[in-house]
Design goal:
The protein has 383 residues and is α/β, with parallel strands linked by helices. The chain has eight helices and eleven strands. It is 24% helix and 20% strand. It is globular.
Length: 383
């Protein structure tokens, strides 16, 4: 009974936290990248083992299906909670400096091209597909915006199953491809470019929010600019955490963040949590040797509430997010419950998961102020 009362009190605080906003951003970009030990002079990027797996499984790329699970009131203003998924491809051109540019306009101006796929609730009967050009369900909107940042050397569309599940639950979901860290990068990837990704993320969010005011955009009238969340995996989790909680890179529009096997990163500069944080859901596999559990434990313990930690027993770095099965379904359900609580102000499903303590077999959820005593918080590359 005591545990039930504690969980209920924590969830009551959710509604208060939703109304508080994310606080000011101090902007700026760090100058150098490091994932683990500082790179030695003359190296192009981190010298330790990269947080990418060899030959990552594409885990659902091009294969869309259900799996967000039943999550209560997860839809738009209609509250239906299940939508047909439309999909559109955009190419954004972020102005850049000569040193950070990865392309140029026809007139020679330096830019960082950001190919971005957008999924959105569409009209029609919900099914297992994602439909290019499908009509946006503006009558049920506007919907919250979720921007996803992929892991290093993994295509953004490798996560398509999760992205579909979140869009089907009533979210506009965008996944930009960051320059120099996608497997298709000409000349090979460079993890050092991660220091530019918080700025890329800021530009993507700003541009997509601008699209909802553009009568010619597929996003016109579809996105609610007051409800924005970010999700990232691995290096994309580092980027998302920086945008949510690091003074270097805070994005004021962001109201909630999900960090999938991510970490604090000293290369960004700034300080974490010095100006607070948006609500966080931290997800981590206990057998992850690429983003070791100490990284997620460190960022979770340091974060102010409201915060949630989903531990996946025996899980490695990529399978919980790329491989079909109950674990990935549990991740999708947990993320939807968290987003519903903070972007739709519908905390019932999250409250149920917290009270129960489990999502699926092997996945446990806590809102404790800190992880159990003795939990390692060692994280290479963190402040």
């Amino acid at each position: 009974m005591a545990a039930l009362l504690v969980a209920t009190a924590l969830l009551a605080a959710v509604v208060v936290a939703i109304a508080q906003g994310s606080g000011p951003s101090r902007g700026g970009r760090p100058a150098t990248a490091s994932r683990g030990p500082t790179p030695t002079a003359g190296t192009a990027g981190p010298t330790q083992t990269s947080r990418s797996a060899t030959s990552p499984q594409q885990g659902g790329s091009g294969s869309h299906g259900h799996g967000g699970g039943s999550h209560g009131q997860g839809g738009g203003q209609s509250g239906s909670g299940a939508y047909r998924v439309g999909i559109a491809s955009l190419t954004l051109s972020e102005p850049a400096t000569p040193s950070t540019a990865t392309g140029h306009t026809a007139s020679g101006a330096p830019i960082r091209p950001l190919s971005t796929t957008v999924r959105y609730p569409a009209t029609g009967t919900p099914d297992a597909g994602a439909h290019p050009g499908a009509g946006p369900d503006t009558a049920a909107g506007p919907f919250p915006l979720v921007v996803f940042s992929q892991g290093f050397d993994v295509t953004a569309e490798s996560y398509s199953w999760l992205l579909d599940a979140w869009a089907r639950a009533g979210y506009v979901v965008a996944d930009p491809t960051y320059p120099l860290t996608d497997p298709s990068t000409p000349g090979g990837v460079s993890e050092a470019d991660i220091v530019n990704h918080p700025g890329d993320l800021r530009y993507v969010i700003s541009t997509l929010l601008g699209g909802q005011r553009d009568g010619h955009s597929v996003l016109h009238g579809l996105v609610d600019p007051s409800r924005v969340a970010i999700i990232g995996h691995s290096d994309g989790g580092d980027v998302s955490l920086a945008a949510a909680a690091d003074s270097c890179c805070r994005i004021p529009a962001v109201k909630a963040a999900v960090i999938l096997s991510g970490a604090e990163l000293s290369a960004f500069g700034g300080s974490y949590y010095s100006a607070g944080s948006v609500p966080l859901l931290v997800v981590q596999g206990s057998a992850d040797t690429i983003n070791v559990p100490g990284c997620s434990a460190q960022l979770y313990d340091g974060a102010p509430p409201p915060k949630y930690y989903l531990n996946i027993a025996g899980a490695e770095h990529q399978p919980p997010y790329l491989d079909p099965g109950a674990t990935r379904t549990g991740v999708a359900r947990s993320v939807i419950a968290f987003l519903d609580a903070f972007l739709y102000r519908r905390p019932a499903h999250l409250q149920t998961l917290v009270q129960r303590g489990t999502v699926t077999a092997g996945e446990t959820l806590t809102t404790a102020p800190a992880l159990p005593a003795g939990t390692s918080t060692y994280c290479p590359g963190a402040p």
